Predict the structure.
Amino acid sequence: MKNVIILGGSGNIAKHVIDILVKKDDINLTLFLRNKSRLRK
């Protein structure tokens, strides 16, 4: 299991990276962002 932390998780580049990483089974994903309401569901 690999741990990945994304700073600025609601940004444009982060959105593309998140889409790729959530499809992988061996990734533990942690997002940091200022406003959690900007995070899409």
Summary: The radius of gyration is 10 Å. The longest strand covers residues 2-7.
